Amino acid sequence: MGGSAVVVGGGIGGLAAALGLRLIGWEVTVVERAAALADAGAGISLHANGLRALDTLGVGAAVRAAARPQYTGGTRTPKGRLLTRMDGAALERALGTPIVGIPRSVLHRLLREALPPGCLHIGAEATSVDRTVPDRPRVSVQGRVLEADLVVAADGVNSRLRARLFPHHPGPAYSGSTVLRAITEHPVDLADDFQITWGRGAEFGHITFADGRAEWHAVLNAPPGVRHTDPLDAMRRRFADWHDPIPALLDATRPEAVLHHDIHELTTPLPTFTAGHVALLGDAAHAMTPNLGQGACQALEDAATLAAALAAGPTVGSALARYDAERRPRSQAVARAARQAGRMGQRLAHPAAVALRDTALRVTPSRAMIRAILRHADWTPPALGLDHRTP
């Protein structure tokens, strides 16, 4: 079964969906409202499930070549005491790959370069979707109307198309946490590939990239909308007494490189990921907190599953029913687990609760930590059944 599709949103999920649809022989147009692709962003960790989805989509090898495996690291207290150790080699034995770290901009570029020229249209904002003709949805894009057999809404946590399709849904809710993050300007001498430090209502973490630079992030309990005149200076003051290499990471960062976003999630699950011949994907469908590092991985799973369902057919309607049945329970369960992980981790602020959490982590066997990661990362993508040629 071939057809035409309009993908709304040129982020990781949207580009991955376009790759999957192209692989099964569909004609695809991607519209992205950003006027320029600045390749901004910090870093991203990809678990085995995300890498397996990328393999299915044909770009796994390129992503692995650009990424750095995360073999060493763990969780610490602000004074530097080790709470848990991450065993990347054990993960690799269990899953065939360790977790890898890569700049988000590099991952985006690799996805974009795998698409043919002219497939991605930037500065093109989709404002509405018309389902008057059920099997030929039409998307309004700045005065133009694009008609296709399928529309993929991959337009993020604040999805405009989701709001149109589900007008009674409350939309995203503030999680109670805000995140500041950046990539260092130059390589930093770090002992670990990956590290998280938990304090009272705060988390500081880093991942190291293949070129020696690192991404750091600071997640803080805060009211929504709080901003700093000098975010980097605010982080230096906030984490002044936290252990090395946190000060070194901040010192290696340019002030203008710091990004600051409030974390929103879909605490009210959607009743379905489809509406007629429209499929929701990624944050538009299941925006979650970053506490499990699964947001992008779940979007990549969506893309691979959508392509496989459409390849199997026999109709778009039946394929979307399969996509919803396979993706909604799993992704919403991961979102719930991420929310719970945040509540038991970074969100804890009471001293007694923090002390109890830290004690529990210290006595938890490393194999139990591995099992916790496997619960979400051990996913096998459906086969695309490629009998088509990319047009």
What is the CA–CA distance across the termini?
13 Å
Largest sheet: 7 strands, mixed
**CATH class categorisation of one domain:** Alpha Beta
Write the CATH homologous superfamily of one domain.
FAD/NAD(P)-binding domain
Helix run count = 13
From the 3D coordinates, which CATH architecture of one domain would you assign?
Answer: 3-Layer(bba) Sandwich
Low-confidence stretches: none
Helix content: 25-40%
- The number of strands is 19
Strand order across the largest sheet: 6-5-14-15-16-13-17
Instruction: Determine Rg (CA atoms, Å).
Output: 21 Å
Mean pLDDT: 95
Strand content: 15-25%
Structural class: alpha/beta
Here the CATH topology of one domain equals FAD/NAD(P)-binding domain
Shape: globular
Topology:
Blueprint (H helix, E strand, L loop, with lengths): L3 E5 L3 H12 L3 E6 L10 E4 L1 H9 L3 H7 L1 E2 L2 E5 L5 E6 H8 L4 E4 H10 L6 E3 L3 E5 L7 E4 L2 E4 L2 E4 L6 H6 L7 E11 L10 E5 L3 E7 L5 E8 L9 H8 L7 H6 L7 E7 L8 E2 L2 E3 L2 H4 L8 H18 L3 H29 L6 H13 L2 H12 L14
Parallel strand pairs: 1-2, 1-12, 2-8, 5-14, 12-19
Antiparallel strand pairs: 3-7, 4-7, 5-6, 9-10, 10-11, 13-16, 13-17, 14-15, 15-16, 18-19
Helix pairs in contact: 1-5, 1-10, 2-3, 2-10, 4-13, 10-11
